[in-house]
Write a structure and sequence with these properties.
Largest interface: A-B, 90 and 89 residues
Distance between the termini of chain A: 39 Å
Oligomer: homodimer
CATH topology of the largest domain in chain A: Aspartate Aminotransferase, domain 2
Number of helices of chain A: 14
Helix content of chain A: 25-40%
CATH architecture of the largest domain in chain A: 3-Layer(aba) Sandwich
Strand content of chain A: 5-15%
CATH superfamily of the largest domain in chain A: Type I PLP-dependent aspartate aminotransferase-like (Major domain)
Structural class of chain A: alpha/beta
Number of domains of chain A: 2
Order of helices and strands of chain A: HEEEHHHEHEHEHEHEHEEHHHEEHEEEH
CATH class of the largest domain in chain A: Alpha Beta
Shape of chain A: globular
Mean pLDDT of chain A: 96
Largest sheet of chain A: 7 strands, mixed
Chain lengths: 431, 431
């Protein structure tokens, strides 16, 4: 029989947590247990001052000089180098820029351009039906334009779908709905055996689970700056491309968003495009420096974490947090109709727990928010994919007692029936 | 004989300037005459507080709630509506998002998609050889991919190039090097007579000269948020599309950066892309809210200017400033070897003055910067396009005495020979 921790046990775990000090790097709103860091990360304490400095001094006083003096020119690379450290990439391999959707367009177009050159007979992109929709839309648009077919499958059918006619396997590493995690290395190896390139969306992985892009042999990756990386609302995203692809010289327009920031000599102002070497060619236009400055602050917390064991230590805590929540759902929330969509097996789990319930998921999330427990709701499709109550557990700033309290609030919401209050009813689809 | 104003005359003009109060809305660095607002606009006084509020309160305290409570969801539209007012567009026709290069890709791809459907025999994009390079690179990439030819011509050959085989005329309204302005209405009419769609880059027009997109019959436009709109470093850009094109339902992937923010129901999370109505389909991914907040502050200065005559009054002052500078170059700088690349005719002039000189242009700009007069340098090509000393005159915050003083500094730099000091020699191409 499994031992179920008490609140007291959880407080002890927090007191003994070697990562506990990392929480002090963030400003958390009072009275809130924030389990939505998988949607929008919290505020690093350094960000207000750093952004204010960028506004008042770098912009206001130094103006255009700051492109050099404040390092604005190289900020996408410098932030990219910090991101590289948490995703198994090397310095100079990552750029922080644009949005995830736009970066996905860049790398998916590049993957198709490479395939067109190397394997012109291939006709398909394979992805997961419950992939985050913007990924599917971007792929749909490119397929429409290039005459490829987008084949969407359930997770257990991916391996079987990797046939010789497939050009690209495009997956989100950790599923945004269920928190289920793919085996990047195994799927990449299976894909490569069929001459298939792999594109990974790390939106729910970067900063949440250890990622080893170079070790796994992946071809392309993109990810989000404003979730687990704590870069602020709409923070620039990132893009990584394996050096064997960035340095292909036979495809000057491999990356079709061929703006001046990806040019070999952007300030030569030549009329012809010559791609820069390496990942720089995946830049396009000028980046939002204020938002990028905030993302830089978010990344600094991960640098601090390195002395405490880095992503391996964060992963260990993350699994303990998600495991604890699932255990509390199974024990203290038994009989309240919840299913657990997130895999019990640790190797298959990201840093969130998704609950299912045949009715009331939206209202229950609202009732929790009213109590200061912030998770979110994702609607199902009435079929294979049920409504989801989504709880992100960010090991940088969530503790064991937070998890216990969140489960206890959920228990009270169900036990009291307060979730059935009319004020929590579904008002509209935007939550 | 033309009367040349003295410094005293210019101070009197400033004292009588009905737009003078607008300068108070900006924080200008002490001891600087800033003539580079065409590269990076200055800091609106409201921005530090507004951005700090967005960081500490909207992000730090309210977190994901701010998508609704702080209006983050609609910020691209709300800022777009403010931009619409200075470019002759209607509310709901403009989105502030992404970079100019990326927005150009969206509209140029859309123009080609429309052409492909309506006039499949057309094979060319026409542009100007000295167009801003990123525009040419984006066009080059699309031509490469779609089998179109990019035909680059000198400004006086544009009309002759508008033949039946041309799909798109892509121009920057005001040239970044010379400040020469095209006649948008006349060129659009000539283009339309041949079934050619027009794409206008307003990077050096929006907020600098009156633009009448709807009145001119243009098809597509993009522009920059961080130049004359004073949105801060790397501020999001904007995009406008004529409603006749946005509402074409036969081309669901007209705009190929088909991200979730351009979806008809982004939070329905459906696997299939359905474009939103109107300009919303030109959105792609999540926008950098902190940078967009700063741009919103920049646009508020233009709203204040409306009570003082708006863009028409700003244009009148802009022409007076650029005309004054050119007059001072012709009179007080006579014999120092400067040519004027900017058209003397007002209808052909943007809000900058570009000087040419066979040698020393870079060093002269550096010597001026050392004196606190900030313009910039753009290298020539050794042929048709000479080296340029570029001076932007932003009527929101530049006065007549500033112009006089800038010309006087330039006179002293030349007279003393200080520009020949070794410390002003060209160090590298990035200026």
């Amino acid at each position: 029989m499994t031992f179920t921790p008490t609140l007291q046990d959880c407080k002890l775990l927090d007191a003994q947590d070697p990562l506990r000090s990392l929480r002090d790097q963030f400003d958390l709103p009072a009275g809130v247990i924030y389990l939505d860091g998988n949607s929008l990360g919290v505020l690093p304490k350094t960000a207000p001052t750093r952004v204010a400095q960028a506004v008042a001094h770098e912009w206001g006083q130094d103006l255009i000089k700051s492109w050099n003096s404040a390092g604005w020119f190289t900020l996408p690379q410098r932030v990219g180098d910090k991101i590289a450290r948490v995703i198994g990439a090397l310095p100079g391999e990552v750029i922080a820029a644009d949005s995830t959707s736009i970066n996905l367009f860049k790398v998916l177009a590049a993957a198709l351009n490479i395939t067109q050159a190397d394997h012109p007979h291939k006709t398909k992109i394979v992805s997961e039906r419950s992939n985050f929709p913007t990924d599917l839309y971007i792929a749909e648009a490119l397929c429409h334009e290039r005459g490829y077919t987008l084949q969407l499958v359930e997770p257990d059918k991916i391996a079987a779908a990797l046939q010789a006619d497939v050009a690209v396997l495009m997956l989100t590493h950790v599923n945004y709905r269920t928190g289920a995690m793919h085996d990047m290395q195994a799927l990449t190896a299976q894909a490569h055996a069929q001459g298939i390139l792999t594109v990974w969306d790390l939106a729910h992985s970067a900063g949440a689970v250890p990622v080893d892009l170079n070790g796994s042999g992946a071809d392309f990756a993109v990810g989000c700056g404003y979730k687990y990386l704590n870069g602020g609302p709409g923070a620039p995203a990132f893009v990584w491309v394996h050096p064997q692809h960035t340095n292909r010289l036979d495809l000057p327009f491999m990356q079709p968003l061929a703006g001046w920031w990806g040019h070999a000599a952007p300030f030569a102002f030549t009329p012809d495009y010559q791609p820069a070497k390496g990942i720089t060619r995946y830049q396009c236009g000028t980046q939002p420096i204020l938002s990028l400055t905030a993302l830089d602050c978010g990344m600094d917390a991960f640098l601090s974490a390195e002395a405490l064991g880095g992503m391996a230590a964060l992963r260990q805590k993350s699994l303990a947090l998600t495991g604890l929540f699932m255990q509390l759902v199974r024990t203290r929330l038994h009989g309240h109709g919840f299913g657990i969509a997130t895999p019990a097996e640790e190797a298959l789990r990201g840093s969130q727990v998704s609950l299912t319930r045949t009715e009331g998921a939206y209202a229950i999330v609202q009732a929790l928010i009213a109590r200061g427990v912030m998770g979110d709701f994702r609607a199902g499709d009435g079929g294979l994919h049920p409504d989801i109550l989504r709880f992100g557990f960010t090991p940088l700033y969530i503790g064991y007692a937070d998890v216990w309290q969140a489960a206890e609030h959920l228990r009270q919401v169900m036990h009291s029936g307060e979730w059935q209050d009319a004020r929590f009813a579904l008002q509209n689809a935007v939550t």
